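Before the break, one more example. Copy the sequence into your notebook; we will annotate it together after we see the structure.
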Amino acid sequence: MLCFVAAVALLDLGAPPVMTIGLRQEEEDETRRLWNKQFQKAREGAEKTRPNAKAQTVKAKPPAAVNRPAKPGVIGDETGEGELIGVTIWRLRRAVKGDDRILVQKNGARSSQYALERVAADASFEEGQFLRISVEAPRGYDNYLYVVDREVYKDSRGERLGEPLLIFPSPSTPPGGNVISAGRSVYIPAQGDPLPYFALQRSGVNHVGEMLFIIVSSEPLPVNVRRPELDPAAVAQLERRCGGQTERRDSRGGAGKPWTKAEQEADEGKRKLVQSDPMPQTIYRVGANRGGCALVAIPLRIAP
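Here is what the structure looks like once it is written out:
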């Protein structure tokens, strides 16, 4: 309330009014609440019990036109346009006494233990930082998740992207491991991978970060996990087909919060997320056709 008083007494024509900033923030918070509501509605029927192995195995269907009319059960934007994708970036640190949730990396007879903390979407990271990413889509049927990575380089001419590589799914991903639906969050890399995290490392002095393209598709894409090098032209076509105008909303106060028991159990495949469980740290709304494919680009910046 004090901000409104200050806006009248200290109005500066060279700076944005405090009231305008406050109203804009309220609008953004309201949008985030509406998007959270859509995720909660989609999770409503999520199962709490551990799915059996057969349920986790999804037979791939032949590639087909991705953008098509929405299927029954799809929960997208309440305006009838666009698709939502929830993304949480997790920063790993060495576990210390008192940490409740631990990710264990087994390395022969030895093991390493890490605690996971949420990170804001616009954060920068020190070189060598370990990261994981979890993705959730409020869709009422099984979809397919893909992640393409391109290194980001910067020089006097500006920024450019390196060659695209498919980093998920990978040869170690089990059948159905890249299937995503309401309440079923997918972690990248998976706990069962030899290294259940990414390490941000520079490949040269001009390497300033990574650009991750997260794709949720109603049909499997024609990719070969054993040949991760992708054709840049094919990736550009995928961007045009599945991408669109994108809005982003972060969870206010979510950055720094630890991995919860519900999120850990969902990562382990023991349950799905339900309405009362934490929402994704960042939600993106993509101006793509409902029920088809949707793509968002996630930058991971390495601090100078």
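Residues 21-49+67-302 form one domain. The longest helix spans residues 18-43. Try to locate both features in your own notes.
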